Structure formats: C-alpha cells, structure tokens
Amino acid sequence: MIRVCVVENEALVREGLRRVLDLDPELTVVSEACDAEQALTTLRRSRPDVVLLDMRMPRGGGLRVLEELQRMEDAPPCLVLTTFDDAEALLGAARAGAKGYLLKDVTPEELGKAIRCLAQGGTWFKPSLTEGLLSNLGARPTHEQRGDGHEEPLTHREREVVRMMAGGYSNREIGSALGVAERTVKNHVSSILAKLGVRDRTRAVLKALEKRLF
C-alpha cells in the first residue's frame, strides 16, 4: 500500500483528490494539509510515501515545502499538482526537489501511475507539459547558444530516452517502446548523465528541459 499525503489549499479539491485516491486499492491517503506550515508539521508526523503538492498556498506555498523537505532525512518524493502550465513554476519546482509535475485536469489513471512511479524512485514530468515549457522558454538563449557550454551533445536516441524519462517511464518500459534491450537503455541513461554532468535521472530531466534538448 502506498501512503499519500495531500497538500492542497482548497478544501473541495482536497476532498476530491481523497475520493479519487480511495478508489485505488493500492493507494491510501494518510494525511492532509491546507498550507505550507501545516504541511511540514503533518509530513514529519505521518511519513507518507508520496506527497501530492499544490504550489500556490498560504504561509510559504509549495516551494517552501519542497525546500524544507530537502533538509529532511528520507524525505518523501513530491508530485506537484497544479492548475498552472507555467515554465518558471515547473523549473522552480524541479530545482527545489519536486520529482513530478502534473496539471489538475489529469485523469485518475495517470495520477495513480505517477504516484506509483514516484513511490518506486522515479520521476513523472508529463510530456505535454515539457512541450509548453519549451515554447515558453523559446526566447531564452540556451547554454549552447551563449557559447559557454562544453557538454557533448546528446544523440537522437538519447534525446528519445530522456524524453521518456521525463514521462516517468522505467528502463524496461523505455526499452519496450524503443525496441531495444533494458541493458541498452541503462547504457543510454549512463551516457546521458555523463554528458549532462548530473548524478541522477531527475537532474538529467531538469537540465534537458532547461537546455531544450527535446
């Protein structure tokens, strides 16, 4: 059973999320909070496996929760659930430690998949969001465009892999989708981490987003 904490400013939305999650036999809501201060207190007490986190709340908002959790030992992964398809919000949340980012119009099925993915140590940044992000970042010069980057460019296949990593797919699922062995995907992931100069999948996705690599 995956234990979930729902951190949401609006009572009706919070209740709706609880009811949706209660329909899934593998998920259970163990705690709720309506603002950042209450969330931090609740999370320390209930120790959930995954946190559903609203970003725009009183008393510090979701960003404060993410930043405080980074200081906690064995902090649960946070899935940002928001109304706003906003480039700065997504990047800010990812930099602060969010492991996933979805809009509130997500289907119950995808929400369940995302929660399971985070509970297993993965990330879930919805692919359609990354397209909007890239569009919003279009006017910004990238690292390469400024001429101060030295990273080796990703191959076409590595770009495919990192895009699927952003969508929360496991190595096995990526291999199945691309028609290659799981070991081959692991090699691609290792190459991606090395080329981007990062140590984990979450930072790889974030850096790929910032650099408009997919």
Protein traits:
Rossmann fold, Arc Repressor Mutant, subunit A, 6-stranded parallel β-sheet, 6 strands, 52% helix, 13% strand, globular
Q: Would you mind describing this structure in some detail?
A:
The chain is an alpha/beta fold. It has 2 domains: 2-126, Rossmann fold (3-Layer(aba) Sandwich), CATH 3.40.50; 141-210, Arc Repressor Mutant, subunit A, CATH 1.10.10.10. Helices cover 52% and strands 13% of the residues. The protein contains 11 helices and 6 strands. It has a 6-stranded parallel β-sheet with strand order 2-1-3-4-5-6, sandwiched between helices. The radius of gyration is 17 Å and the shape is globular. The protein starts with a strand and ends with a helix. Residues 137-148 have low confidence and may be disordered.
Provide a quick synopsis of the model.
With 214 residues, the protein is of the alpha/beta class.
What is the β-strand count?
A: 6
- Sequence of secondary-structure elements: EHEHEHEHEHEHHHHHH
What is the CATH class of the largest domain?
A: Alpha Beta
Strand arrangement across the biggest beta sheet: 2-1-3-4-5-6
Task: Tell me what portion of residues adopts beta-strand conformation.
Answer: 5-15%
Give the CA-based shape. globular
Number of domains: 2
Structural class: alpha/beta
* Biggest β-sheet description: 6 strands, parallel
How many H/I helical runs?
Answer: 11
Name the CATH architecture of the largest domain: 3-Layer(aba) Sandwich
Q: Would you tell me which CATH topology of the largest domain applies? A: Rossmann fold
Distance between the termini: 35 Å
In terms of per-residue confidence, which ranges show pLDDT below 50 for 5 or more consecutive residues? Answer: 137-148
Radius of gyration, CA atoms, in whole angstroms: 17 Å
CATH superfamily of the largest domain: Response regulator
Helix content: 40-55%
Average pLDDT reading = 85
